[in-house]
Amino acid sequence: MQSVNANSFHLHKAKIMSQSLSLPDHFQVVVLGTGLTESVVAAASSRLGHTVLHIDTQDYYGGDWASFTLQGLTDWADSKIQPKPKENSEPKCSEESSNQPYIEELLGEGEELFDLGEFPSVHSVQYQWHQNQENQQEEESIAEPEAKSPEKTDTTENTDNTAQDETKKTEEGTKHGGSKKKQWNKQLLLEETRRFNLDLSPRLLYARGAMVELLISSNISRYTEFKSVSRVLTQIGGRLEHVPSSRSDVFATKHITVVEKRILMKFLSFCVNEKIEDILEGKEHKTFKEFLAGENLTENLIHFVVHSIAMVTPTAGIREGLEQTVKFLSSLGRFGSTPFLWSMYGTGELPQAFCRLCAVFGGVYYLGRNMSNLIVKDGKCVGVITEGKRINCDYLVLPDNRTPLNILKGGATQVTTRRGIYVTECSVLPADKEQITLLSLPFKEPVHVIEVGPGTAACPKGLQIVHATSVDVANEEDDNENDSLHKVDEIIPKDSLLFSMSFRQTTRIGDVSTSLSNVYRASGPRPELDFDLALQEAELIYKQIYPEDEFLPRAPDPEEIIIGGDDSEEKGPETATENSEKMEDTSNDASTTVKDNQESMQVQEEDAKNQENANIDKNMES
After folding, report:
1. What DSSP assignment string belongs to 450-466?
2. Which residues, other chains included, contact 353 with Cβ-Cβ below 8 Å and sequence gap of 6+?
3. From CA 455, how far away is CA 463, in angstroms rounded?
4. In 57-181, which ranges are continuous DSSP H helix?
5. Torsion of CA 319, 324, 329, 333, to 10 degrees
6. Whether this model's pTM surpasses 0.85
7. What SS3 class is residue 497?
8. H or E element at residue 597
9. Which tens digits make up the pLDDT trace of 413-465?
10. Cα(122)–Cα(80) distance, rounded to whole angstroms?
């Protein structure tokens, strides 16, 4: 039976509805791809009333920022495992672009067609199923007698029965108070596929970082849920240790001496209270490590600060190191004991949150549909061809992997991210309670390791998900010596590993504009820990399209929206001026009425006094 989740249901529904959907012939902004940068630009445009058409040719949301179930992840990997395309090979034409006579009927005078690009943003995809020795021995002992029996020949059926028996035994042991551990294998993992949310591009949010501030200021935070990262680890001498980041952590840790604690607290206070420009005066030429040594930090403290607080290389400049240190310290204590937040259900939820805002303010979504060509005239893109229909547009935003090479400006450089995903039965550092962990491993470039468990809806109970991300420093794909994932292999218990996947993500960075004056390019994921670079690029693209507009102002809550409204709200500026004059006249009338009432009250008081005096005189006479 095919598994169905909310993502695939809504996508299938959108496909069915779009078959009969009559799209307008013109949109102000057309956005291709539902990656994070593209989704932010679409939301910002729709929020201020611009008409937006958001197209995605994939059968899932998020592009290279997507989150998958376990089955979905392996299906995605299978679609990427293919022979490497030859250099200078032309991309294959779609059915629409190959049908030139029909397409040319949609073109006007002086217009020409540009095919979309096919840049391979994901490559070197590999995955493997692992089973511990105990499971392998049990399967062998079960399979041997079955092989001797001539009656049973369907191995798939036998495996299903074995998996069901193991599940029943585990459930019975749990009911009777037993402590028997569930024996995971490939089939059991795939049966629980819908309980997995596995990210292609996992990210953390600094508590006072750009993403958190944007989610709060734009009111998009109502579409999202987060959990605080509970611990930050580092590797010293081959063992994992907790990083003292707050005052309480510094004085509670046993990994640094009392003298080192005072030096560290003094340095952290110095970074927070002093301005970076004042600290840099006369020291710009130094590396961050040299600066720390000059501040009397020991080698032990330098390791903590460089690799786990600033999370930079020892050769990084002093400005970069200080900025990252201040960013870490300024986020402490806002939402938890560490500076970081993790998105529930995976990072792929964040692009969808921006898509929801875009749809609420009138953005049109055309998902799972083909887009084959750009229509170009006089150095501008005047429209696109999607599903055989021409859609005119004022501006177009393309993902980097679909940007045509002939409109790409020079100077763009490629950045490759090395990624690893691991499903394990045991944490990298077991604890009494479930932890959300950040570990920065020292290498030629820092290796960011994030470990999440079932409490974040990332996996079933009893499992852990480990994500590894770093800059790819390997000279070649087979350069194992410089492969950063080998550092991760050292910390994962081999007997608990159930599934692993590795791949590379490549994107081109540089100018977001193209040789077409109204077409912009959104880069893919880069090897960063948070979302700052993606948000900076999204705001840059939006400001080039609408330089006078505010970038993603606050969206009202549903209860704040008034449907219908008064006639005065629907009238133009002249009527509003008349209304203000009427209000002034009304206020003058009101002040006159109050004055008349006051005079009348004074007359009534005088009459009452005269009557009272007359009554007194009568009483005296009597």
Report:
1. EEE-GGGTSS-TT-EEE
2. 215, 220, 223, 224
3. 10
4. 70-80, 95-98, 100-104, 133-148, 155-175
5. 160
6. no
7. strand
8. helix 573-621
9. 999 999 999 999 999 999 999 999 999 999 989 999 999 999 999 999 999 99
10. 7
